[in-house]
C-alpha cells in the first residue's frame, strides 16, 4: 500500500489497534516534520516523530531537533519524466533518511508488541520512494498463521507483478 506522509502512521496505528498486519510503501516524509495536521486520524499529528520511545531516547535533545530535517531530506524528487540516478549522492542521502523515519515507525510497532521488517523495492531506481515497512503481531493464532501461509502466494503475486514493471520487493 503506497501511503502519503502521516497516512503511513495512521495505517500502522490502525493495524496495531486491530491486531492486524500491514505492509506499506511510505512517501511524502516531509509531512511528518511539518506543522500542518493533515487529519490522517488514528492519533497522528504534525511533528509526532520520532514516535518510538527507543529513538526518542537514543537521539537526545539535539537529535530531536535534527529529526525534522532528516524527515524532510527523505523527500527525494525525481527528475523530468520520473528519471533519477539511484546511485547519486542525493538519492542515497534521501534513502538513509527514509530508513531513519521508517526505523522509528518499526520501533514504535515493536514497542506495541509487533514484529516487523524494513525492505526496499528493487531495483531502487524503480521508484524514488522505495522503502517498505511491514509489521505483524508477534503471536498468531492457528487461523492467522494459516492466513500468513496463504499470503505467501500473494507475496509471490506481488513480486511477479512488480517484476512486470521492472521492480520487485527486496527484503532487508
Protein model, in words:
- It is a single chain.
- With 172 residues, the chain is of the alpha+beta class.
- Helices cover 47% and strands 17% of the residues.
- The protein is built from four helices and five strands.
- The chain has helices at 6-18, 53-73, 89-111, 142-164, and strands at 2-4, 22-27, 114-122, 131-137, 168-171.
- The chain has a five-stranded mixed beta sheet with strand order 1-2-4-3-5.
- Helix 2 packs antiparallel against helix 3.
- The chain is globular.
- The model is unreliable at 148-172 (pLDDT under 50).
Count of alpha/pi helices: 4
Low-confidence segments, given as residue ranges, are: 148-172
Spatial shape: globular
- What is the first-to-last residue Cα distance? 18 Å
Rg value: 16 Å
Short description:
The chain has 172 residues and is of the alpha+beta class. It has helices at residues 6-18, 53-73, 89-111, 142-164, and strands at 2-4, 22-27, 114-122, 131-137, 168-171. Residues 148-172 have low confidence and may be disordered.
Amino acid at each position: 500500500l503506497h501511503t502519503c506522509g502521516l497516512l503511513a502512521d495512521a495505517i500502522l496505528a490502525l493495524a496495531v489497534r486491530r491486531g492486524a498486519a500491514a505492509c506499506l510503501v511510505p512517501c511524502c516524509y516531509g509531512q511528518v516534520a511539518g506543522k500542518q495536521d493533515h487529519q490522517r486520524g488514528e492519533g497522528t499529528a504534525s511533528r509526532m516523530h520520532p514516535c518510538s520511545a527507543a529513538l526518542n531516547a537514543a537521539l537526545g535533545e539535539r537529535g530531536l531537533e535534527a529529526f525534522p530535517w532528516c524527515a524532510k531530506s527523505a523527500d527525494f524528487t525525481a527528475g523530468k519524466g520520473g528519471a533519477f540516478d539511484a546511485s547519486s549522492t542525493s538519492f542515497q542521502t534521501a534513502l538513509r533518511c527514509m530508513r531513519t523515519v521508517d526505523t522509528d515507525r518499526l520501533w514504535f510497532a515493536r514497542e506495541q508488541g509487533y514484529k516487523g521488517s524494513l525492505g526496499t523495492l528493487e531495483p531502487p531506481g524503480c521508484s524514488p520512494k522505495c522503502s517498505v515497512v511491514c509489521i505483524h503481531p508477534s503471536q498468531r493464532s492457528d487461523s492467522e498463521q494459516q492466513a500468513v501461509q496463504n499470503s505467501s502466494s500473494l507475496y509471490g503475486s506481488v513480486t511477479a507483478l512488480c517484476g512486470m514493471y521492472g521492480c520487485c520487493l527486496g527484503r532487508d
